[in-house]
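Bit of a strange request maybe. I'm writing a small parser for structure token strings and I need a real example to test against, not something I typed by hand. Could someone generate the tokens for this chain?
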Amino acid sequence: METESMKYRYLGRSGLKVSVVSFGNMTSGWADGTEEWNFQCVDKCIRRGVNFFDTAEFYGFGIAETILGRNIKQGGYDRDDLIITTKFFPSNFGIQGLSRKRLRQAIDHSLERMQLDYVDVIYLHRFDAEVPLEETIRIANEIIDNDKAFYWGTSNFTPQQISECFTICEKHGWIPPIVEQCEYHMFRRDIIERDYVPLFDQYGLGTTVWSPLAGGLLSGKYNDGNIPPGRLESSPFAPMLKQYWDKYIGSRKEAALRTLNGLKAIADELGCTQAQLALAWVIKNPDVSTAIMGASAPHHLEDNINSVDVLDKLSPEILARIEELLENRPAPSMHWRTFTPNPPRR
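Reply from user aminoacidic:
Good idea to test on real output. This should exercise your parser:
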């Protein structure tokens, strides 16, 4: 269901159109009582034109897939309007990795949990150094040939590993990956803005980026330099939050708080929230196909979806002011014909 305000982009060089913001249910299944609020989030997304829903067999050890499937069935939505993706982890606490044997079983188990005949995209959730990549890509193509998925991609692969995927596919005439799922936010820019640029140029690779708010640090909740009471005790994702905090705040607190509060001032000028500004900044990048949102409540999701309305407010002047606050633009690669740095892509 396409709405007036939602924007869509093609996922890589495929014919698949995805909303520029999407929903990931990584937090579903790790705690009791998540199914109902997850349905409210899914329903909110669909009513606002979001059509891309991301999950993984690893999330809640299968429970997140089950919940998403039940939510889709509960809402009675038109499956043709939705883009559903899942990911397969190298071990998933077994010994077979991303082997032909394991992936044949994994796709059937995922579809059974989600009560679906197919997913739109399957991802290799991490690179598996113990299984020949050729074997893994062969079975990814077999899954597509059997109409259990339409496309495949990678998640958290290095540029070299992704390039190897394309080389293998070109050698055998197989369907190549169309997308990579990686981290991207105002504090982590090197992957999208430097490392993958040759892949965007050569292969038209799409991206579905995760943690666009840096684990919530860019939401505005931490601008006073403190973690809200109970946040590190009440969530199964507390170790991830602590890791983000230590990496981006704790080690450089004064500078980080200056950046966060500077972003809040710009957001206030634009008439939006800091979270909306941070999300809009991510999807302003043309190399981002969609930014995957998480949410602990439907009203947070509503705020995040409205980031689409901020896109047109990010003028070159505003983007320059944001750059002055961030001070972390990756050094551009060199254009070796002219011996000058390549211009920024944003």
